[in-house]
Amino acid sequence: MLFILMWLLIVLAVVGSILVYRQLSGLIRKRAVRGKGGEYGYPLMGQKAPDFILPSYDGKRYALSELSRQYGLLLIFVDTGCRHCTPSLETFFQELKKLPGLPYAILVNSEDPESNPELYQELYGDDGLLLISNREVHEAFQAEGFPFYLYIHPDQSIIYAGHSSLGLFNSGMFVAS
Questions:
Q1: Are 83 and 138 in the same domain?
Q2: How wide is the angle at C-alpha 61 spanned by C-alphas 82 and 166, nearest 5°?
Q3: CA 154 to CA 72: how far, in whole Å?
Q4: Which residue in 6, 61, 69, 115 is a FRET match for 109, CA 20 to 30 A apart?
Q5: Residue 62 DSSP class
Q6: 31-56, pLDDT tens digit by residue?
Q7: Rounded Cα–Cα distance for residues 49 and 106 (Å)
Q8: Measured distance CA(107)–CA(96) in Å, rounded
């Protein structure tokens, strides 16, 4: 009888530990609510997006507020040293086929002297707007980690933030035509 009681206590302790672990790891992974706003509690959600004028690889300069004013704009922050950025962009372009015409700009952080921003120009230069970015822009948008996706509504408010484009496409904010 004592053996069965000890066995039952061990099973309850293991099951309890698993439940506590799942609850705590879920809280750690989701710093806030997952859903329409993105993957975690982005501090600038719903606020007016910072405005910058950035150069592109074709030599022109673009104001982010002007680019987003008519249809909104998806900003994709990447870093030339990021090993996750290229696979994430490939996934993004696969999903983008479902929503042709979604305006986006890739902001390439190229402050690292050993970086190769031309790689992004070669891979994605024909598909959309590539802007040369810097640490100041990334900090103003509080873009932590790469890649980082932000959607700016035409009213200039930030309505999506996350490290994956799939959350954006699965959010229901856009309807495929």
A1: yes
A2: 40
A3: 4
A4: 69
A5: E
A6: 333 334 455 678 899 999 999 999 98
A7: 16
A8: 17
